[in-house]
Write a structure and sequence with these properties.
Rubrerythrin, domain 2, Citrate Synthase, domain 1, 18 helices, 3-stranded antiparallel sheet, mainly alpha, single chain, 428 residues, 52% helix, binds carboxymethyl coenzyme *A
Length: 428
């Protein structure tokens, strides 16, 4: 097979190199096309545009395959811990026993937040959405660690910025929640593991300490792993593009948190629960909502359905659906919206509209149901996604800087007015 494609344009033949990834994915390299022909390419939403070469995640949306650094998501979700997976994603290999012990210790010992963050938090209205608060607090880390502004000064400092961010995000997230509900902030406790510590900071009060049920911490570990990385999605691309201007890790990840917030991306987990609740309150008529989702004159979409790259079952959704059943039965929770979700899923999977468009449940369809069972409030769901996605953002940011990638700067096709003369106010 030839390693270039020919483009015939204006009587010229332009050769475009074909590059190939390790899973035989092929791409046309158009980086020199404009110089060769005056043409740019256009692809709104980057539906068919690769922005980079990356060695972190392999995803085959047609076959429903997801692997981090070559390891299948099913194996990692079953056997690994979130911090181990974070190490794998960021550094490329599973850690040795010693590496993992040091990694966990470092992350445990950097969970405290500078006391001045309390003052920052007090400035937010109590009804502030925790995603907005979280992104503000993450970018505020640059003020407390100014050395992070020179993001690649030394490998040790890069590692320290990474450790701090992984360590502090759960504290910041729990504090954003405590601020919202008007309870005193809870400090981290080094004797607890990553998930248990986060849940204690969420749910302990001065009146009563809190220890999470092992069923809950095990599920949380699994959920965080399933969200940990997903190649060039909206928030990760945002992190890479912000970082490509040589902005700091904290500034780049803060931007990623904002990108994740929208209901078409990570905000879908909150939107799914709100949708299921609305269906329940409306009498549980799933057929009515399916019809609304299919009606092009109705802006309603079936939240938690469809994906830009999965045209088959999202492998994470399969694992989460099973986990939802397990967790609810182990915790003895009987959530009526789980039944509504199952009816909706079954109806959609048998409906020609969804079948033809290859719309399947995505990771967000069942995750909210588990979060509810774990006691996480609805407006914290997207924050949970952010906690999970952090290793992916960090790993992609690090890869982009190590590969010395150029600043991200797409082109456009201009469709506005041609040159015209300024019109004096009196003549308008
Ligand atoms: N309900 C009803 N119709 C849908 C849905 C849906 N959830 N998703 C896509 N469609 C239709 C869409 O109207 C279009 O139909 P047509 O070809 O007749 O115009 C077709 O399917 C293709 O949709 P698209 O919007 O062109 O696809 P996209 O790749 O641009 O969008 C998506 C992907 C995830 C934004 C979209 O499927 C969606 O809005 N889903 C609901 C929100 C959601 O669950 N988001 C979470 C994604 S997974 C977590 C993450 O990684 O962020």
């Amino acid at each position: 097979m030839s390693d270039f494609a020919e483009l015939h344009y204006n009587g010229e033949v332009i050769k475009l190199p074909v590059i190939e990834g390790t899973e035989n994915e092929k791409a046309l390299d158009i980086s020199k096309l404009r110089g060769q022909s005056g043409l740019i390419t256009i692809d709104p939403g980057y539906k068919n545009t690769g922005s980079t070469k990356s060695a972190i995640t392999f995803l085959d949306g047609e076959k429903g395959i997801l692997r981090y650094r070559g390891y299948p998501i099913e194996q990692l979700a079953e056997k690994s811990s979130f911090l181990e997976v974070a190490y794998l994603i960021i550094y490329g290999e599973l850690p040795s026993k010693e590496d993992l012990a040091r990694w966990e210790k470092d992350i445990t010992y950097h969970t405290l937040i500078h006391e001045d963050f309390r003052t920052l938090l007090e400035g937010f209205p109590s009804n502030a959405h925790p995603m907005g608060v979280l992104s503000s607090l993450v970018t505020s880390l640059t003020a407390f660690y100014p050395e992070s502004l020179d993001p690649v000064r030394s490998a040790d400092e890069v590692r320290m910025n990474i450790v701090r961010l992984l360590a502090k995000l759960p504290t910041l997230a729990a504090w954003a929640y405590k601020n919202e509900i008007g309870q005193p902030l809870v400090y981290p406790l080094n004797s607890l593991d990553y998930g248990g510590n986060f849940l204690r900071m969420m749910f302990a009060t001065p009146a009563e300490d809190f220890r999470a049920d092992p069923v809950v911490t095990t599920s949380l570990n699994k959920l965080l792993i399933l969200h940990a990385e997903h190649e060039q999605n909206c928030s990760t691309s945002t992190v890479r593009i912000v970082g490509s201007s040589h902005a700091s890790l904290y500034a780049s990840v803060s931007a990623g948190i904002n990108a994740l917030w929208g209901p078409l991306h990570g905000g879908a987990n909150q939107a799914v629960i709100e949708m299921l609740e609305a269906i329940r309150e409306d009498g549980g008529d799933t057929a009515k909502y399916l019809a609304k989702a299919k009606d092009k004159d109705d802006p309603f979409r079936l939240m938690g359905f469809g994906h830009r790259v999965y045209k088959n079952f999202d492998p994470r959704a399969r694992i989460i659906k099973k986990a939802a059943d397990d967790v609810l039965s182990k915790l003895g929770v009987n959530d009526p919206i789980l039944e509504i979700a199952k009816h909706l899923e079954e109806a959609a999977l048998n409906d020609p509209y969804f079948v033809e468009r290859k719309l399947y449940p995505n990771v967000d369809f069942y995750s909210g149901i588990i979060y509810r069972a774990l006691g996480i409030p609805t407006n914290m769901f997207t924050v949970m996604f952010a906690l999970g996605r952090l290793p992916g953002w960090i790993g992609q940011w690090k890869e982009m800087r190590e590969n010395n990638e150029p600043i991200g700067r797409p082109r456009q096709v201009y469709t506005g007015e041609n040159e015209r003369d300024y019109v004096d106010m009196a003549k308008r």
